[in-house]
Amino acid sequence: MKDSASYKVFKIVNTIILLLIVFITVFPFINVLAQSFSSEAYINAGKVNLIPRGFNIDTYRTVAKDAMFWTNYKNTVVYTVVGTAISMFMTTIFAYALSKKRLMGRKFLTMFAVFTMFFNGGLIPNYVLINSLGFANSIWAIVVPGAISIYNMLIMKSFFENMPEELEEAASIDGLNTYGILFRIILPLSKAIMATMMLFYAVGHWNSWFSAFLYMDQKELFPVTVYLRNLIAGATGGASAGATSADNLTQISANIKSVTMVLTILPILLIYPFVQKYFVSGVMLGSVKG
To answer: Is the pLDDT at 240 greater than 80, yes or no?
Structure first.
C-alpha cells in the first residue's frame, strides 16, 4: 500500500524532531569528551564544542601515573560487584515474598518498607550505627546500608505478582519447594526485570561516593569516585593528587571535571548496550498491572 502525502510529511517531520532530540541529548557528552582532551587556554576561552582544541592528555597522564587511582578503581569494581550481588539477592527474595497474598503480615511489611522511603534515622544516627557495628573502613559500610532499594523492590514485586500462578502450582505438583520454584522457574522467566534491576544497582554502587567519604578514612579503601572528587578539590584548591609540578596544575584544573566525568561514566557506557534490550521491557513489565 502506497503511503499518502500527509503520512510522508509526518515521517519527515518526525525524523527531524527525533534527530534534534538525539543531538540535544548527545551534545553534552561529546562536549565533555572534547574538553577532556583540550588545552586550558581553549577551555577557558569557551572555544571547545564538539572537537578538541589544543589536543593534550596531561590530566589523563597525571591520573594514570598515580598508583592510588588504580587501587581505588579496583576497589570500585569490587564494591560494585559485591554490592550488586547482595542487593539483587535481598531485593529478589523480599519482593518475591511480598508478592504472595498468602504471606502473613504482607500489608504491614509492605507499608513498613514504603515508610523507609520517606523517613530515616538521619545522618548522625546512621554514622553511629555503622561504627558500632564495626563496619567503618570496610566494604560493608558501602554495600550493606543501601542493600535494598524499596523503589526497585516494589517494581520487582509487581512483576512477580503478574506472573501466572499456574506455573507455580504445576512446579509444586512436580515436587519443587518454594526455593526451587523461585530459582528454577521464576527467575529464569524474569531475565528482563533482573537485568534492569542489576543495571540500577550497579550504576548506583559505581557512582556512590558519599558513604565512603563518610565512613572511611583510609585512602587505600576509597572508591575511584572519592579519588576523583579529591582530585577536583585538590586541583581547584591549589594542590592535586598525583600532580608532580606546578606547570601542569593549571592544565589539570582546567579540564579535571571533564576528565573525571569521562572516567566515571565510561564503564557504564560500555556495559549498558548489553543490557539495553532488557531495560525498557523490564521496567514496563514490572510497573504495569495486568
So the answer is: no
For residue 262, the model assigns a pLDDT of 85
Give 33-98 as a DSSP string: HHHHTS-HHHHHTT--SSS-SS---HHHHHHHT-HHHHHHHHHHHHHHHHHHHHHHHHHHHHHHHH
pLDDT of the residue at 241: 44
Residue-wise pLDDT tens digits, 69-115: 889 989 999 999 999 999 999 999 999 999 888 888 888 999 999 99
**Contact yes or no for 260/36 (Cβ under 8 A):** no
Phi and psi based region of residue 289 (left: phi greater than 0; alpha: psi -120 to 50; beta: remaining) = beta
Give Cβ neighbours of residue 8 (< 8 Å, ≥ 6 apart). none
d(CA 37, CA 30): 11
> What percent of the chain has a predicted confidence (pLDDT) above 70?
87
Nearest to residue 190, comparing CAs of 216, 163, 222?
163
Contact residues for 102 (Cβ-Cβ < 8 A; gap 6+): none
| Nearest-5° Cα angle at 164, 162 to 167 | 140
DSSP 221: G
Average pLDDT score over the chain: 83
Sign of CA pseudo-dihedral 31, 33, 36, 38: negative
Cβ(128)–Cβ(190) under 8 Å? no
Residue among 244, 254, 233, 264 at smallest CA distance from 72: 264
pLDDT at 236: 62
Backbone angles phi, psi at 55, to 5 degrees: -50, 130
The span from the CA of 102 to the CA of 172, in Å, is: 15
164 vs 162: CA distance, rounded Å = 6
Instruction: Determine the pLDDT at residue 278.
Output: 65
